[in-house]
Amino acid sequence: MRDDRRMNKTGVEQTLGLLRDWLESEAQSARHPHNVASLPDLPTHGRWLDAEGLLPVLAGLATGLRLREPDRDHDPLPDPAWRAQRLNCVGRSLRLKIAGAAVRDALDAWGGPWAFIKGFALARSVYEYPWMRLAADIDLLVRPQDLDAAVAALRAAGARPIAGSVQGHERALTVRGVEIDLHNAPMSKGRLRHNPAERWLGRRCRIDGYPCLSAHDELLLSLIHPAVTEYLAARLVRMLDIALQVRRSREPVDWPRLADDARRLGLANAAFATAIRVNHLFSSGPDALIPLSFMNALRVDPLRRRYWRFWLDRQPDQLFRRSPLRAGLLFGLWLNDSPRDLLRALDYKRRHW
């Protein structure tokens, strides 16, 4: 029996080619239907696309990003499978929206500084429609001193706690059947030289009525988070998130500031590894999507530069599949910017796991 969670090399390149074309296209041309013949075969590769988070994007491209059904006489997509997938994605997005609105109302009434982060926020800031970027849960950020109060506010509004599934810096609840992960740091504190949560929340903004981080801080989080959580080896939609944030930024990306912030957090290597992965997947033509000046400003030493390129050239998804413990160990040891960062990460893991 075919394992349809995987896709052959041709299918992967086919998908990446479509996404590169979409990134390069103008906004008005992106709303026209793409060549149906160039789409991966949905019955064969649908599970792989869904696991990588790319199924909603391709459903949007296949149907021209339109919400209404195409005219029957001019239907660019005779196969109804992609239309059905699009409608399924719209339904899943509405479920997330209902839960997100309930969270927003409860925490706005509470009054402390907080923000949506990662997938839920990016779906509303860099994608044509929120249903093109789905997530299994909704992530929030609060200040460390506000974590318990924010949890209490959500529970008072009907949220139910989830026990035994979180780390020391977060709490998990369910709201309207959707898991809500409430963080008092953007990631494990053992990975951070200092917690930027309070500073980031001090410059948050509202997108489509939802409190979110500034574009700069969300891009920084997108650059450092995949390597720390080993998402470089899976969920290609997280790499697409970064490509879209760069391409669709309303203001020029402040690359020197991003590099400085990553170094101050002790996560220059994480940002460097993610940048290599994004450029490999989505850069086209002579210019890299993430500029060399940013990667140089991270000040990653030459030995680690060679290591990251070697590691990523060896297809990390296959390394993790064959030997997850060995791949995770090799990746994690080199991820830390200094021996002190490594000791802090190990000590935090020992105390909280």
TrEMBL record:
GO molecular function ontology, one term from the record: transferase activity
Pfam families (alphabetical): NTP_transf_5
Keywords: Transferase
Protein name, per record: Nucleotidyltransferase family protein
